[in-house]
Amino acid sequence: MSDSFASTGFDDNTDKQKGIETELKDLIETEKNQMEFNSQLHEFNGICWDMCVDRPSSKLDSKTEKCLKNCVDRFIDTSLFITTRYAQLLQKNL
After folding, report:
1. How far is the C-alpha of 94 from the C-alpha of 85, rounded, in Å?
2. Over 90: is that where the pLDDT of 66 sits?
3. 13 or 74: which leads in pLDDT
4. 39 — phi, psi (to 5°)?
5. CA distance 71 to 66
6. 54 near 64, Cβ under 8 Å?
7. Distance CA 3, CA 18 (A)
8. Is 22 exposed, middle or buried (0-12, 13-18, 19+ CB in 10 A)?
9. 43-50 contacts: CB < 8 A, separation 24 or more?
10. Contact present, 68 and 52 (Cβ < 8 Å)
11. Backbone angles phi, psi at 38, to 5 degrees
12. pLDDT, tens digit (0-9, with 9 covering 90-100), for 7-46
């Protein structure tokens, strides 16, 4: 009779719950990182705009266009560098 009470399935439920909690923590961390990235992106856009656009007009002059292009190119370069570095760190931790 004691054997029928030994395997109640509580351990399985606890393991599943821990797995779900881990997944939720990972999802929250991913969303937090995405929000931080978006925040930095908006800040960067503001910096580029303030640096490159003297005054709003209906057309971009060549100087403004070149400045914005360079700003965007540097942002892309930096983003690729950070993404690559982050991937390398993740690989080390696995």
Report:
1. 15
2. yes
3. 74
4. -65, -45
5. 9
6. yes
7. 26
8. exposed
9. 44/75, 47/71, 48/72, 48/75
10. yes
11. -60, -40
12. 555 566 788 888 888 899 988 988 998 888 888 878 888 8
